[in-house]
Write a structure and sequence with these properties.
The protein is 55% helix and 26% strand. It is of the alpha+beta class.
Length: 193
């Protein structure tokens, strides 16, 4: 009986060992499959996170480029809105006490992205130079092609004021010359869209 008891224990032990090994292999494969699945999910998640970060960076760059584009656009004159630029020039002239009038505006056919303008300016020497300086430093890409500056002699002679200064002893004529009027003819190019 001892021998059959020992055989029974051996058979049960071998069966338990085989079941344990089978259970171990089964659990190992389940864990391995879960690890593969988790790795795939993590890789997908990392790709999605990287994609979202790239989209956020791209959106920031697009916003920055939009700002840069606006700044660049402010240096250029749109050919369809040249009247706005002419209004800007005339307003600048009025702000500086000079009579600024636009003589001509043309878009050269042989040169792209340029507008040629010619303006007449009348006023005092200081105000004309101030206006020209402001025009050169305006927030547009302006390049002056020619400038002619002349003193307007016809107005100086007719604008002189003559006063009679009378004292009990004698009468004397006093000349008070009017401020000299200058005229400038300015031609320049401005970059356009």
């Amino acid at each position: 009986m001892k021998k059959s008891n020992t055989n029974l224990i051996l058979i049960i032990s071998v069966l338990l060992f085989i079941i344990s090994v089978g259970l171990f292999v089964y659990i190992y494969r389940v864990i391995e499959n879960k690890n593969r699945h988790t790795s795939a999910v993590m890789a997908t998640l990392n790709n999605k996170i990287a994609e979202k970060e790239n989209i956020n960076v791209l959106n920031k760059k697009m916003a920055e480029l939009g700002d840069v584009q606006k700044r660049i656009g402010s240096y250029l004159v749109d050919t369809s809105q040249i009247d706005t630029f002419v209004g800007y020039l005339e307003e600048m002239g009025a702000d500086n006490n000079i009579d600024l009038s636009v003589k001509s505006v043309e878009v050269p056919k042989n040169e792209k992205n340029k507008i040629s303008l010619s303006i007449d300016i009348r006023g005092s020497f200081e105000n004309i130079l101030k206006g020209i300086s402001l025009l050169e430093n305006a927030p547009y890409n302006i390049s002056v092609t020619s400038l002619f500056l002349n003193k307007d002699m016809t107005e100086n002679e007719s604008d002189q004021n003559i006063f009679l200064e009378t004292t009990p002893a004698k009468t004397k004529e006093v000349f008070t010359p009017a401020k000299s009027v200058w005229q400038a003819n300015l031609s320049f190019n401005v970059l356009s869209l």
